[in-house]
Amino acid sequence: MPRVSKRTRLLDDAEQYGRATKRRRLQSLVEALIDDLPDTDSSSSDSDSSNSSSISSNSSISSTSSLSSGHESSQSTGSSESQTFEELEDAARIAWNARFRAFVELIRTTRVLEPLPKVPKVSQLGLVLDGYRVDDPTRFRRNLRCPPSTFDALVALLEPNPIFHNNSNIPQLPVPYQLAMFLRRAGNYGNASSPEDVAQWAGLSVGAVEKSTNRVLVAIDDLHKKAMELPGDAQREASGDWVEARTTKLWRGGKFTTDGTTFPLFERPGLHGDTWFDKNKNYSINAQVIALFVH
C-alpha cells in the first residue's frame, strides 16, 4: 500500500470535517422548519372558541381593538428581532466558510508543514583559516590535510574561475571558505565526510556545503591541463636512469604504480585468507599496474 503524505491526510480530514459541519447545519435547519409548522388541532379549537364568543358594547370593542393593536406591535417587534438573529447567523456562516477555505488553501500552499527546530552551530572556519593557519600549522594540516602554503596556492589558482562569480544579489562565500569545506570532506571518509557533519563543523547549511563542493570540483577540473602534463624527453630519460639504477636494464622503460582502489572479493580467499582482510572489514585486493615500454 503506497504511503500517503501528511498534506494529503490533512486535506482529507479537512474535507470530512467540512462535510460533517454542513450536514449538522442542514439537520438543524430542517428541525427548526419542522418545529415552526402549525398544529391543526390547536388551530381548529381556537376558531371554535372565537365563534362562540360575543361582544356586547362599544367599550369592549375598543378595548379589544387596543389589545389587538398592542399584540400586533409586539409581533412585529419579535419578527424584527428574529430577522436580526438570522442575519447574524448568516454572517457567522459566511465567515466560517471563508476561514475554512483559507485553512485548506494554507495546507495546499505551505511548503513545510512542520519545520524542524534550528540546529545550533559554532563555525570552525574562522578558527582554522585565521588562527591555525598563522599560529598553528600542525592543527591546520590536521583539519584540511594540507599545509597553509599549499592552501594559499590552491586559493590563488581557483579564485579566477568564473564559477565563483555570479550576478546574484546574494554573494557567494569566499573561495577560502568553500575550498576549506571541500578539503574537509576530501580528507575524511564515512560520516565525517558527509555534508551534515561538515555543515556542523563549518557552522553553515548542508546546501552551502554541497554547492561549495561542486564548485571546487568544477574549478579543479578546469585546472587539469595546467596541473597534469606528459613528461618531456629529458624527464623520461632521467626517470629511466633512476629505474635502471635500482632494478635492471630490462625495466628501464617501465613504470610501477599503485593506487588505493580496492576490488572487493565475494568470499575469503583460501590462500593467505586473512592477508586480504582490509581496514573496512572486507576481503579485497588493491589495484597494481606495471607498464613496460620497450625501447
UniProtKB/TrEMBL annotation:
<protein>
    <submittedName>
        <fullName>Uncharacterized protein</fullName>
    </submittedName>
</protein>
